[in-house]
Amino acid sequence: MTLTGESNHNSNQPAASTPEPADEPAGMTLMGHIEELRKRLLISIVAMLITTVISFSFAEQLIDLLASPIGGIESLQSIEVTETIGVFMRVSLLSGFILALPVILIEAYLFVSAGLKESEKRWIRAGIPVAMILFVSGAAFAQFVMLRNALPFLLGFIDVQAVPRISNYVNFVTNLMFWIGLCFETPLLAFLLAKLNIITAKVMLQQWRIAIVVIAVLAAVITPTVDPINMGLVMAPLIIIYLLSVLFAALAKRR
Questions:
Q1: How remote is the C-alpha of 4 from its chain's centroid?
Q2: What is the 3-state secondary structure (H, E, C) of 148-166?
Q3: Burial class (CB in 10 A: 0-12, 13-18, 19+), 91
Q4: Where are the alpha helices (DSSP H) in 67-112?
Q5: What is the model's pLDDT at position 20?
């Protein structure tokens, strides 16, 4: 009877005698965030390495496409021994980045999604394919619209035969395509920031003077020269993009 009573007494108080198992913390620790960031970066880097290796098979065709505004790859010259190899790798990396961009955007979303509401997650998920389309559209605009108008002017400014170096030419073209591609993301960024109540269309319109100054500085950085024609060629689409960003910010607040 004594043993039974003791057994019943112990079974009635399990919480006092048995420690509860340690639960995972509600919020991720600093080391957890660092580990998660490392994981997402590693996946993005591996994806970009794979797409860059794939790009090796058609990098020469891409270089010829980039040189099409001046007559093709035969219109370029190489001076240094390793110059063509450096250009080949640069074009392959840019192509690899574009091909891996969906994976990079998805990994960035997975990293920040833990701190977002479900409605915010839906908007970001919908924005990932739009971001890809906008970046590719900006790069295509730079290649097939801006460069086809700017390069003949630059090379024919003085009546002197110009044969560009392949490294100088490809660096200029890829820089322009990359930065214009990023600028084309501005409407989507404005839409998402307005959805998160960080900016409003009214404030963007009120700050149009500051926006023009920023656009002029960007145009001066992107273009190789600061002549009015080339700066105007870059500023015009950037101003249109800013106005589209205001429109997208306004649409984001409509039900």
A1: 70
A2: HHHHHHHHCCCCCCCCCEH
A3: buried
A4: 83-112
A5: 46
Q: Which residues of the chain have pLDDT under 70?
A: 1-28, 224-227, 255
**CA–CA separation, 25 and 33 (whole Å):** 13
Q: What are phi and psi of 149, to 5 degrees?
A: -100, -35
> What are the pLDDT digits (tens) for 107-164?
988 888 877 788 778 878 888 888 888 888 888 888 888 888 778 777 777 777 778 8
**Confidence at residue 57, expressed as pLDDT on a 0 to 100 scale:** 95
Residues in Cβ contact with 79 at an 8 Å cutoff, skipping those fewer than 6 apart: 165
Distances in whole angstroms, Cα of residue 91 to Cα of each of 73, 105, 168, 212, 213: 13, 21, 13, 32, 32
- How far is Cα 187 from Cα 171, in angstroms, rounded to an integer? 27
Question: What confidence score (pLDDT) does residue 255 get?
Answer: 55
Contact between 100 and 51 (Cβ < 8 Å)? yes
Q: Which two tokens stand for residue 223?
A: 């273009």
State how far the Cα of 166 lies from the Cα of 168, in Å rounded to an integer: 6
- Distance (Å, rounded) from C-alpha 245 to C-alpha 8? 71
Looking at residue 91, its pLDDT comes to: 94
Residue 182 near residue 218, CB atoms below 8 Å: no
